Fold this sequence. Notes:
Elements: H1 3-13, H2 20-27, H3 31-43, E1 48-51, E2 54-57, E3 64-71, H4 77-86, E4 90-98, E5 102-110, H5 113-125, H6 131-134, E6 138-145, H7 148-160, E7 164-166
Amino acid sequence: MTRREQLLDILRLGAGPVSGEELAQRLGVSRQTVVQDIARLRQQGVAIFSTPHGYRLNLDPAVYRETLGIIHTPEQLPRELEILVGHRVTVEDVWIDHPVYGRVRGRLDITTPKDLARFLEMRARSPIPLFSEVTGGLHYHTLAASGPDAVARAREVLREEGFQLVDPTPQNILC
Length: 175
């Protein structure tokens, strides 16, 4: 079995993202070698995603995706994400359309309650404002789920709890 095949096996069998450091240790190579192997596998069409917590393999390219536009305060962030994760919706990213810099995107990959707890812990330690604090609370997420029903149910609960949902159309974008 080649090193790249071993790398893919580690990602396939992992319960979540696997850090580059862990991959390097398990494969007995440098972190840079892992980065090069990931790049070569991607060139071959393997769907490997980089997340803040490591690399993960997209085993289901037929996942349903939808953009959610939402407005809320920083204090409402935990509840927003709890609702989405609780409905088995992955929050892949967060983005804003900044009036000066254009589209600014951050990868989240929050799928499980554990991912959510880790994100909220990092957020609590960070002095950096949320993207949404630059735009008066308006931001967007790319959501992924097994189908549109999970996202629809999560949207319904968000509305019921007072979150303002916004269509991700050009007239709602700042720049």
